[in-house]
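Need residues for this backbone.
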């Protein structure tokens, strides 16, 4: 395990150099020292071995007693004992002093060793804790020359794999190795205990000569005592600090100083309970280490089982230990504070996350390259469900993976990913369906899951399947522990706006082995759609933080999307911006969450337009253009964004186009998107068609929570300012407050633009009273009804038409002008038409030609 470190130490000692073996508790220091001592004896050295002890570090000469000096010289204190030992070390032959855990050596014994080594210049080999990097404190042992330090780093993937094979008697699979590596933090002693306890609790199973996880967790009752031993002896402040760090996750050192004192961090690091790492910008990050400690704090039985520490847990500490699904205002406030702290950290957190993701992809791809098994391929492809994709690598994995002897579950996941990739990369649904049909025929025990995933692809990329309930009810899973059927049913129920059915589907599952990443996304979105807004915010933000710690970009992006929807509805727009900023800074994610990434770009783009006007550069233009106009979830289709960002000479034109779009969404079976789109478009303009469609939609789906909003929109549509005043005076704040604020802002602006000054003044007076009660947060997005757009010149129209299908260099070459001239024409055309993207400019120019413009 530590052959290289032992070899280096033996080489140093042979050259007369003293060696410090540095590492945290459980890092293998003692094991390394034993191997070094054995190697020295084999090489002809006389080894003088002693060790420190936490229980005996106050007992004079306790450590030196191991050398058999029988108390001689103790009457003269450390000097007398040093004289006796120095005489022995001065004799001929190779001699060396070896001290295990010198930090815990009693002072008298340490003084003897220091004096003897100084006199005889015999090399000294000691083990000690890794000193804190950020404190000014020095370790107990003084520096000596010549001396070197060998720092024991946490175990790497291959080392943990080897250790698990030795512990369990057979090799582990890639998922088990990765899980133990993450949970143990590379601590060898803890990795062994996790493996042993997992075997005892039947969380790992031996299949075809390989150990694999039987579920999605390694936390169990047998590991509790090991973690308790790690935590034993913590002071109340240290316990509170560790609990806080477990809750907030990895954070820059500077931001943590506000909530955990530097001295406490210092002591926790010495105990090996927190780890410090430096990101590319030089910022120091702090996180709980090992991760199994975080699982310990989340165990609902912890408070009853921690008898050793129970008397040290204060009311304040206990109040932080709440389920993540709690709707407690205090917990929500705590999560919001964490989010703001993350935002204040700038780009450091993102860079740190990015680098870890790159390393994760490289390590998983290397494992697959070394052994191109289906198991290794499945582990690698899981990364691409959320992580940035290298097309050449994913194609290589698809073409070169060996299928012979593969686990059927791994084979199904491989086929499922390949089918999804066929649609995302080429848009060919027929190839995807053929792949799923083939895997169902090759592995009949996964046929139900293959058929369910085919339904998911059809619903997500085309339209909701006919007879969906009948088809789903006929499917009988032979792998209920995979969770595939409940999760797919859950998300399809969300597509058609039945959040309660989605939650029931999830709660009926026997497990989520294959669908573990999707389940929190579906559950969080269901909580939001069900109207449990605060609970959805708490759940999604908690899952987002957990995903960051797990280096799970799929979970990070998916939970961020849910958080943005829920927070926006809760009036937490600035906090939603923080969430989206963290997502965007990572770049484009993997293929399954890229649609959610696009949706957030459009949401953020609309907020940009609200603050800076239609001519501002909007994040919405960064969303992919080659996607469907209509999507199954809020914002996942581009049509709503394109519709809202246009300029309208007559608001009734917007009302007409919006109603058409809603009809298309409903025709595809995307009821959830239709509901959210209708409410959003109603907040921009309460046209007759939009209002009627929204009322009908909500009524048909049994939704009564938007009654105040609909009544206010109706009063504005009818220009009934007296009824509007009554409704606003009686209004009780609910989740529609941001939409109502946006609607009222647009009313005044619209009347002013139409020169209806009398109506504008009347509405303004009514709205001012409302805004005194509910002050708006920042600028509001309003429908652009600024009159007829300026006409395009013939050259601008020509370039606008070309811009819909060709890039700037291609247009320049075709027309014989410079690329800069092309860009100038496009910029002027965008400004004249009020459009925000080249695609919307193209559509505007095409429509104006059709209309004779």
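Answer:
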């Amino acid at each position: 395990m530590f052959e290289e470190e032992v070899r280096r130490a033996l080489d140093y000692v042979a050259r007369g150099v003293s060696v410090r073996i540095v590492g945290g508790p459980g890092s293998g220091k003692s094991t390394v020292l034993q191997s070094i001592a054995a190697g020295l004896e084999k090489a002809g050295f006389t080894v003088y071995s002693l060790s420190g002890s936490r229980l005996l570090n106050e007992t004079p000469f306790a450590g030196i007693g191991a050398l058999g000096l029988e108390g001689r010289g103790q009457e003269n204190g450390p000097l007398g004992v040093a004289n006796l030992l120095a005489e022995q070390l001065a004799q001929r032959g190779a001699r060396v002093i070896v001290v295990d855990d010198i930090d815990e050596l009693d002072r008298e014994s340490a003084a003897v060793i220091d004096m003897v080594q100084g006199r005889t210049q015999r090399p000294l080999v000691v083990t000690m804790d890794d000193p804190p990097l950020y404190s000014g404190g020095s370790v107990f042992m003084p520096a000596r020359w010549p001396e070197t330090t060998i720092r024991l780093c946490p175990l790497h993937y291959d080392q943990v794999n080897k250790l698990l094979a030795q512990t369990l008697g057979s090799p582990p699979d890639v998922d088990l190795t990765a899980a133990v590596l993450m949970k143990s933090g590379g601590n060898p002693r803890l990795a062994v205990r996790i493996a042993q306890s997992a075997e005892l609790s039947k969380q790992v199973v031996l299949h075809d000569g390989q150990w694999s996880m039987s579920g999605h967790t390694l936390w169990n009752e047998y590991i509790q005592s090991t973690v308790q031993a790690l935590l034993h002896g913590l002071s109340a402040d240290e316990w509170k600090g560790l609990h806080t760090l477990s809750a907030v996750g990895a954070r820059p050192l500077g931001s943590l100083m506000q909530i955990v004192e530097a001295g406490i961090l210092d002591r926790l690091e010495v105990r090996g309970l927190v780890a410090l790492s430096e990101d590319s910008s030089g910022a120091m990050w702090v996180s709980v280490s090992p991760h199994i400690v975080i699982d310990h704090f989340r165990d609902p039985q912890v408070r009853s089982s921690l008898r050793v520490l129970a008397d040290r847990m204060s009311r304040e500490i206990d109040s932080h230990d709440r389920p993540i699904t709690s709707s407690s205002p205090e917990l929500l406030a705590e999560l919001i504070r964490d989010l703001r702290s993350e935002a204040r950290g700038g780009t450091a957190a993102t860079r740190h996350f990015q680098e870890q993701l790159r390393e994760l992809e490289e390590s998983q791809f290397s494992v697959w390259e070394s052994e191109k098994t289906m198991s290794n391929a499945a582990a690698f492809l899981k990364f691409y469900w959320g992580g940035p994709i290298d097309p050449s690598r994913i194609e290589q994995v698809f073409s070169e993976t060996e299928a012979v002897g593969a686990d059927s579950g791994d084979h199904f996941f491989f086929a499922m990913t390949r089918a999804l990739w066929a649609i995302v990369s080429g848009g060919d649904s027929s190839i995807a369906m053929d792949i799923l049909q083939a895997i169902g025929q090759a592995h009949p025990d996964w046929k139900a899951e293959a058929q369910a995933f085919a339904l998911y692809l059809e619903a997500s990329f085309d339209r909701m399947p006919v007879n969906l309930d009948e088809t789903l009810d006929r499917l009988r899973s032979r792998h209920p522990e995979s969770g595939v059927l409940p999760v797919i049913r859950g998300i399809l129920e969300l597509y058609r706006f039945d959040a309660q059915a989605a939650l029931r589907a999830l709660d009926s599952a026997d497990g989520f082995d294959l669908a573990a990443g999707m389940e929190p996304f579906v559950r969080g979105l269901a909580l939001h759609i069900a109207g449990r807004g605060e609970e959805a915010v708490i759940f999604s933000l908690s899952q987002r933080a957990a995903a960051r710690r797990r280096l799970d970009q799929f979970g990070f992006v998916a939970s961020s999307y849910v958080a943005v929807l829920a927070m926006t509805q809760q009036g937490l727009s600035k906090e939603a911006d923080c969430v989206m900023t963290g997502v965007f800074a990572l770049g484009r994610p993997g293929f399954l969450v890229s649609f959610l990434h696009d949706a957030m770009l459009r949401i953020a783009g609309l907020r940009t337009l609200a603050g800076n006007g239609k001519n501002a550069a909007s994040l919405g233009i960064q969303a992919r253009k080659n996607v469907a106009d209509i999507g199954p979830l809020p914002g996942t289709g581009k049509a709503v964004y394109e519709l809202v960002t246009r300029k309208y000479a007559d608001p009734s034109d917007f009302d007409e186009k919006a109603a058409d779009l809603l009809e298309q969404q409903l025709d595809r079976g995307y009821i959830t998107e239709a509901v959210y789109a209708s409410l959003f478009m109603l907040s921009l303009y309460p046209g007759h068609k939009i209002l009627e469609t929204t009322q009908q939609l909500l009524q048909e789906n049994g939704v009564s929570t938007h009654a105040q909003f609909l009544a206010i929109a109706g009063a504005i549509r009818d220009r009934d300012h007296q009824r509007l005043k009554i409704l606003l005076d009686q209004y009780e704040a609910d989740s529609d407050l941001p939409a109502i604020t946006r609607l009222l802002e647009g009313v005044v602006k619209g009347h002013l633009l139409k020169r209806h000054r009398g109506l504008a003044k009347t509405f303004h007076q009514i709205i001012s009273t409302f805004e005194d009660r509910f002050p708006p947060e920042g600028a509001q997005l309003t429908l652009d009804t600024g009159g007829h757009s300026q006409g395009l010149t013939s050259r601008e129209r020509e370039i606008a038409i070309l811009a819909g299908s060709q890039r700037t260099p291609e247009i320049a070459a075709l027309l014989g002008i410079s690329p800069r001239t092309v860009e100038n024409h496009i910029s002027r055309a965008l400004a004249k038409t009020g459009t925000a993207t080249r695609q919307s400019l193209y559509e505007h120019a095409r429509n104006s030609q059709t209309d004779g413009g």
